[in-house]
Amino acid sequence: MRTSDFKYDLPEELIAQHPPLRRGDSRLLCLDGDTGAIRHTVFSDLPRFLKPGDCLVINNTRVIPARLLGAREDSGAAVEILLLNRLDRERWETIVRPGRKVRTGHKIVFIPGRLSCEVEDVLPTGNRVVRFSFEGIWEEVLDEAGTMPLPPYIHEQLEDRERYQTVYAKNPGSAAAPTAGLHFTPELLGSIREMGILVAELTLHVGLGTFRPVKTGEVTEHVMHSEWFSFPPEAANAIRETRAHGGRVVAVGTTSCRTLETVASKDPEMNPCAGWTDIFIYPGYTFKCIDAMITNFHLPESTLIMLVSAFAGKEHVLAAYRDAVEKKYRFFSFGDAMFITKKHQTEETR
Asked: What is the mean pLDDT of the segment spanning 154-181?
């Protein structure tokens, strides 16, 4: 399977540079994974496609201001640090730019006398492990010094940080938003609950690896990044109840999907757990938990469009993307959304 099999043409002007004026005002393309049938509507119509007894699974991670701009203490040279994974109270795995000039032992100052770090190790990936020194409460200091690391295809400044957070974000740790959730409003979630639909919360802290391009010609040669997740008892119970009554598990976003499929792959009983996942889902994968998915439109040749293609069939997905381009949908993080039902797998598609 070639990476180029997941390529499509996208005019640059269709890449959304800012969120809609109001949450929930995005368009919604509905794709039937079995037939390839497409319907066009708006996101506020989502409840029409859900059923009492379904379980909507959301990712309650919160994006942290993970981009820090500082200077080397010895030379004054400018340095940018992107926080990836928190290792303990003071230590983080990070991306440092320019990396070649920042070595073990170098100290970087962000707020003199209040926030600095020292490089402890250079990992085989080129990432750096740094130890922070700070005065005060870490979250408050980081909020003062850091900025949101918006995706590389967004070139406009974000006036309101909260528009890059879901309305249900609560557990800080992500370097990027679970963008399928950006469309929800408290009112819409309330309407969904009133329909008799369970809303289950899990956490997957999204890393910047989600934007890393697939550089291998063969899909199977790509090495997937790892992200930390938590699948709590409340979510486990909700999914068990849904399955017991014949309801559907509807994942909001590829992050919820990857978490659920990670858990189901290791434990069909879906017991509560936490850990790291580097699951890489592409066509040929057999889904073990989810029945439908809400997701945004993804970059060509990315691991995310591969995941969606595994779920609904590559031909159906690429046809839907071509239709969305023709109808001038907005793409990527601040763009429009899809509601996709699963393609039932046969021996030929496994």
From this structure: 93
